[in-house]
Amino acid sequence: MTTGTSSHKLWGGRFATGPAEALDRLNRSIGTDFRLWPFDIQLSRAWAMALWQGGVLTLEENEALESGLGRVGERLAAGAQPEAGDEDIHTMIDRLLHEEVGAVASKLHTGRSRNDQVATATRLWTMDACSRLDSAMAALQQVMVERASDLQDAIMPAYTHLQRAQPVSAAHWLLSHFWPLQRDRRRLTQASRGAAVLPLGAGAIAGCAFPISRVLLKESLGFHSVTPNSIDAVADRDFVAEVLFTLTLTATHLSRLAEDLILFGSSEFGFVRFGDRFSTGSSMMPQKRNPDALELARGSGGRLLGDLVALLTTLKGLPSGYNKDLQDDKRVLFDAVDTMLLVLPAVAGTLGELTFQRERMREAVTGGMMATDLADYLVTRGASFREAHGAVGGLVREAEQRGCELDALPPATISAAHPLFGEDAPDWLGAAFSVARREVEGGTGPESVRAQMERAKREI
Ligand code: ARG
What we know:
mainly alpha
């Protein structure tokens, strides 16, 4: 069965019949690429102008196309929907342009192909998406910095191997999730720059045969350079891969923040309580307060990785030039961007409405966590660290046998463990004391954390 011959097509003259419905359904990409329309119109206007400047179109023709494309844009903005025969957004815009300006619309496709057209539109969309993503990331960072500023003097356990390790400022822990996002934003800026290379003018594969200025096209569309090779230009999807990788890493970072918070929100930890607006209930268990936004954020790490792997697998082994496999680049790109634009504000909202239970955090800091400080005490008195480690290890064992914490051991027991222990040794088992000793740059000491907060604010 074939589709109706009445449908608007950008090709078909050489075929006796239209495509089979099974091919048509598979081939049709408008369900995915419809959203490229503002960028397709933008590049089409620039292309009409380039054709006029190149002497291919008359001024009147350029003006007709220019105003026609403007009206097509208005119709699309007002909600114009695809027709059954619209293969992709480029075809639909071409159809609408014919409706608006008649036969002159057929001149717009001179010297260009959907191959350079779709690559250009997708790059423009990506550049715009990168700036929306950057704002969403910066908004999350802003919440982190605000929440951290209240937590500078709150002390909590830091964990290694998910075992209590050493006391830290809660602000220090929260900011540990800020810096990965800062790196993501830097990567996103680079990815956006990678996208800002103009393929238009590459034609189908060999380059446009009409004297259009790619430099003017580049300038008018906001690209920073033009592609140096037309064969590469129509097939290069590195920019998609770079954005997907960047977002996969962001999703990975958010999944780790989410995991910390989910864990800290459990009754067993009780360090945080989720706000009502970012908690969901259970249809069966009335007592439940579930952190769904964080769980979905954590889950999106897998989804984004799937998008990245799908793209790289599609690209791997493709022959030179455009191949239809590339049509699926947008499916994964849009999915990844859409997902992150949902996840980032939801994580920011959840974080903004958390209540930090400082008491619970503080109570979780136990004496044994200052064992390193006690060993450091001996080092300041002249012992080697290995010797100090051994002596304090003996005290830890002793405390374990007595069923008490290190700081509950009698001072005499401590003194007996090493000749260099003095009366002031138990002071070194204080959590605030331990935190205050770590004023190294990047450490958890109060001054260091203040400096880190300032730096974080500057970098947003
Ligand atoms: N819808 C197509 C895509 O997204 C447009 C390019 C079509 N090119 C072609 N030679 N059929 O890739």
